[in-house]
Design goal:
seven-stranded mixed β-sheet, five-stranded mixed β-sheet, 1% helix
């Protein structure tokens, strides 16, 4: 379900693939309410978690055999109102949680876009803390007024927290998880792009590589985080507009907002208001890929 790498591409030195849909699922919310799924987390046991960007609650995606839909089931002990009550006085507007990640100790992280917070839940103590990260070294990349243009995705790997500043200016920020100090920041540019500002929708870590969802270019890129360069590029442009996905394009760019990666699959998710079906799987060479719009 994917083309072979374009070895004749003179614009870059990495292989580029075109992906096509193999399977789709509708994600059903508990009470049929609007559910704007954003970040994705694939846990070690294979469980997929997502977050509604209209709050802080986490939901697991529960699949049923031979069905074209999957249920969104609330995880009742993660980022509850009681657990985040301590931050109420400083919170501006509603919670707009966009990214989700987990570290080797089992702690779960959320990126909150409106206030540019990183929240961490200790699964043992069931307490939530707001990480005291000094963002001043990368303050110049933050939009002065638009708080819906910031922390869109996170990933954890190699003792580091990777934070995606979404746009105006799109940037990947690297934080030392032990010291909570900013180590670096960078951006990558996919092939054939004419965009000056790269939009980051989510990040995922797998097998020593950082994967980024670039919705403005409708691609997923595999990144060497040490060299800060692209290793491979996967386009879902044709796939998301196929009849199988029944994707309603509301903007000139894609609205995919969540990404998770494992050995066989890519997983993506988009808000419910933009697509009729909420999950797609597809294959690249020997690597099978799955998508959740």
């Amino acid at each position: 379900c994917a083309t072979h790498p374009d070895s004749a591409n003179s614009e870059n030195s990495w292989p580029c693939y075109n992906l096509s849909a193999e399977k789709t699922w509708q994600l059903d919310s508990p009470n049929n309410e609007r559910f704007d799924a954003s970040g994705l987390l694939l846990q070690k046991g294979g469980r997929l978690l997502t977050v509604n960007d209209r709050g802080s609650e986490i939901y697991k995606i529960e699949f049923s055999t031979n069905k074209e839909s999957a249920n969104l089931v609330l995880v009742t002990n993660c980022f509850t109102d009681a657990q985040i009550a301590a931050f109420a006085r400083e919170k501006m507007g509603r919670y707009d949680c966009e990214g989700i990640a987990q570290d080797g100790q089992g702690r779960i992280y959320l990126s909150e876009e409106g206030n540019r917070w990183i929240l961490r839940l200790d699964s043992k103590t069931q307490k939530v803390e707001r990480l005291p990260i000094d963002w001043s070294p990368v303050q110049k990349y933050f939009h002065r007024f638009d708080r819906n243009a910031s922390f869109e995705g996170i990933a954890i790997g190699d003792g580091k927290l990777f934070v995606a500043n979404e746009r105006q200016e799109g940037r990947i920020i690297v934080v030392n998880l032990k010291t909570l100090k900013i180590l670096d920041d960078f951006t990558v540019r996919p092939s054939k792009t004419k965009m000056q500002d790269i939009h980051y929708s989510d990040l995922s870590w797998f097998d020593g590589a950082l994967f980024a969802l670039l919705r403005e270019n409708r691609v997923v890129v595999k990144i060497d985080p040490k060299q800060k360069r692209i290793l491979a590029e996967y386009s879902f442009h044709a796939m998301e507009q196929s009849d199988a996905l029944a994707y309603r394009v509301a903007y000139p760019t894609s609205t995919m907002e969540g990404l998770a990666v494992d050995k066989k699959y890519f997983y993506l998710v988009a808000p419910s208001k933009f697509c009729a079906k909420n999950m797609v799987s597809f294959t690249k060479n020997r690597q099978r890929i799955v998508i959740l719009p």
